[in-house]
Design a protein that fits this description.
- This protein is an alpha+beta fold.
- It folds into two domains: 73 residues; 80 residues, no CATH class.
- Helices cover 49% and strands 20% of the residues.
- It is built from three helices and five strands.
- A three-stranded antiparallel beta sheet has the order 1-2-5. A two-stranded antiparallel sheet has the order 3-4.
- Strand 3 and strand 4 form a beta hairpin.
- The longest helix has 71 residues.
- The N and C termini lie far apart (82 Å).
Length: 172
């Protein structure tokens, strides 16, 4: 048997009121789904963030423990390396150790104006007519380990420090 569903039509104010009431019921339910989804999202986000925080804290703790162990074994390797007559890199199947030179260069913001003031233009790099900067390469070449920069009249130029250190490195 075939039934034909007829489409309802609003033909008066009473039917309009009924249709708007049904619309309102569905709108309330529609909005309720948004509210429920948002509440669920917030709960999951809080749980997720809490779990992430816990994971991050555990990672940091474990890495600190591993770093402590690595430092211990690096110290053992360094003690042995220092007993060797030559300080050439030492290689084994598991890795290598050596002392590597590290250059530490630092200067403050006033160095450029101080270099100009003391007539040390050879340490100033001119990029354009209006843009100048400190020529770090020229400074490093001129100043030796732990040394200081001095003007022609023997006055120390403040704001620049350059030194070389040796650092024990392990590569695995």
């Amino acid at each position: 048997m075939t039934e034909k569903n007829e489409r309802f039509e609003v033909t008066n104010d009473s039917q309009l009121n009924w249709a708007l009431g049904k619309y309102k019921e569905h709108k309330i339910q529609f909005d309720e789904y948004d509210i429920q989804a948002e509440e669920s999202r917030k709960i999951l986000e809080e749980k997720y963030n809490s779990e992430l925080y816990g994971i991050e804290q555990r990672r940091l703790k474990l890495q600190a423990e591993e770093q402590k162990e690595m430092d211990y074994f690096k110290g053992l390797a360094e003690q042995y390396y220092l007993t060797l007559e030559t300080k050439n890199p030492k290689k084994t199947i598991n890795g290598s150790v050596r002392f590597s030179k590290k250059e530490n260069v630092s200067y403050d913001d006033n160095l450029l104006s101080e270099l100009k003031e003391k007539g040390l233009n050879r340490f100033i790099s001119v990029k354009t007519k209006t843009i100048e900067s400190v020529d770090k390469k020229a400074l490093k070449a001129f100043v030796k380990d732990g040394g200081q920069l001095m003007s022609e009249d023997g006055e120390i130029v403040e704001g620049f420090k350059f030194d070389k250190t040796e650092e024990f490195t392990v590569k695995v």
